[in-house]
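In this supplementary section we document a worked example of the pipeline. Step one takes a protein sequence of length 234 as its only input; no multiple sequence alignment statistics are reported here. Step two produces a three-dimensional model, which step three serialises into structure tokens for compact storage. The input and output of this example are shown verbatim.
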Amino acid sequence: MVIRDDLAMNPLADAEMSDESDLPAGDFSAWVTLMLGALRGGQSAVPCGECTACCTSSQFIHIGPDETETRSHIPAELMFPAPGLPSGHVVLGYDEHGHCPMLIDDQCSIYDHRPATCRTYDCRIFPAAGLGIDDVDKVLIDRRAQRWRFSYPTPADHTRHAAVRAAATFLDGHPDLLPRSSGSSTTQRAVLAIELHDAFLRHDDATDETTVVEPAPHAVRVELTRRARMRDST
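The serialised model returned by step three reads:
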């Protein structure tokens, strides 16, 4: 795991500057709330601009059996059964250049009908979790992710970000707790860190302060199991 401490609290810079300029990622707590909503069935609102890094980085896109609208806009020969998942789950592959085959002239040709995986993808999860991507095929995503800068209007924003990073570090040190489906995917670890970060926060009613704590591995395992059951029931 690569920890990027340099991404934590830098001031926002003008997003319209060069390709190496900082990009405003938004207020941290507000972004986490939106991200959790996206993971529960909504969609993210990423200010992508002209960036197509996630579409050109050799990514397999999962498409669920209920995504009939999406499937109707993708040629059947481009989808194949998703390994390790029940029948009906498929993945959309990429071409010899690592590009999504639905990316035409640097634009998504099925944007209004794109898979849920695409609708919820947000590369801000990597700086949020303090993770870098060491996959050579995803260098463009890593470069984009390094440019995001969150803002922290209240002390609670700082604390919440510290909790997400604590969760990511904890998961890296306890790989036995990870669901089998997550494997060693940096994306999955970042997502889990965001989903689990509340377990790394403790509020003291006497002082009205919230601090970052490290829960027992058993407590994290129970929470992971609970969330897996919730996903399976939806």
